[in-house]
Amino acid sequence: MAKIKITQIKSVIDRSERQKRTMQALGLGKINQAVEVEATPSIVGMVRKVNHLVAVESI
Question: Which of 3, 4, 17, 53 has the fewest Cβ atoms within 10 Å of its own Cβ atom?
Fold first, then answer.
């Protein structure tokens, strides 16, 4: 599978609890923090839910 790099670009303050937990599940907790993960369907779905808070790059 392809790998993607997910970088948090906005804060989770004043966001719903569901969005906060999705960010935690992706491994993100601070602005400008980045993680590299496999692009599985579940990860892609989580990224879609918080796409306004993250930047995504293909690796």
Answer: 17
CATH number for 27: 3.30.1390.20
Residue 27 carries which DSSP code?
Answer: T
Taking the CA atoms of residue 19, residue 21, residue 26 and residue 31 in that order, the dihedral angle to the nearest 10 degrees is 70
Residue-wise pLDDT tens digits, 12-58: 999 999 999 999 999 999 999 999 999 999 999 999 999 999 999 99
List the domain range (segments joined by +) for residue 46: 3-58
Q: Structural domain tally of the chain?
A: 1
